[in-house]
Amino acid sequence: MKEQDIIEIKDLLSEPKKIVIVPHKNPDGDAIGSCLGLYHFLTKLNHQPLIIAPNDYPEFLKWMPNETDILKYEGHTESCDKIISEADIVFTLDFNAFHRAGQMEAILESSSAVKIMIDHHQQPDPYAKYMYSDVTMSSTCEMVYHFIDMLDQTELIDKNIASCLYTGIMTDTGSFRFPSTSSTTMRITANLLDKGANGSDIHNAVYDNNSESRFQLLGCALRNMVVLPEYKTAYITLSQEELNNNNFKKGDTEGFVNYGLSLKGICFAVIFIESQKEGIIKVSLRSKGDFSVNEFSRMHFNGGGHTNAAGGRSTENMKSTIEYFISILPSYKNALNS
Ligand code: 5GP
Ligand code: MN
To answer: Does the predicted model carry a pTM greater than 0.85?
Structure first.
């Protein structure tokens, strides 16, 4: 962030303000962790922040401190629109284009509040007056830590803030194993432990609450996996019927796509998940090395994200989506084999 931006933000935050914090639709650990971390920090600065999430999020995030304070836009659009229209400042966290906030796109578009973006995805839209965008960052949670540091306020970081930020760094780095995990990420994580985050408890809360039905669904996903060695690619499909048969709940498929990527010799993994409610096939893409799933998803699945992790969607049915996917792989053969 520019020096001048920091000075202006310090000034902006020097008196109590009405602040709204927004994560992306279908928020993950980094989105909820960064929003709650910032929420606790701004509360300590005597502001009145509110978090408005576009929709609900998985159970495995529902232990986080003050998680129950988060408002859901879905089902409460009128009251949330009012709050946003009266806000002085809107922070958008872990996304960089209004359409990523789903149904909240229109109200964010029309809001005259000062926008502050904190985000690590590629190709940001220039909607924010203050843009803290850095694609080299492991997570938005790491950036919220840097943001607090730029405001010279790290002494305000307590156990609540530390626990929230730790959660998002852990989930977005695949428990500190993805290449985005820098030595700075580790130093910040160490500071968060010193501030009271309990890494072991947080890992337990997020990852060790599996239901039996989730494992049945994982079994189904792994049986459905197709490996295409000539493209170093593995993909998984899950139909709505398979989800229903295995008592699917939000978040159950989190991480499934990584199984494809953990196969020997595979550098590109995709999972296609049918959503009857939305009338789409949700696509999650992961890669190892230089193959950019961000570009692949932007080009073919109306999505985006990072070089090694992206999402997207298809409005065709599963069969046509898979046929399309297989039809475009030959044009990536060199890129996937280099
Ligand atoms: P996931 O596959 O876990 O849904 O998403 C992987 C990464 O890509 C996350 O960082 C997520 O925020 C991002 N992402 C997912 N879907 C989209 C999308 O439609 N557009 C963009 N720009 N990013 C996405
Ligand atoms: Mn993130």
So the answer is: yes
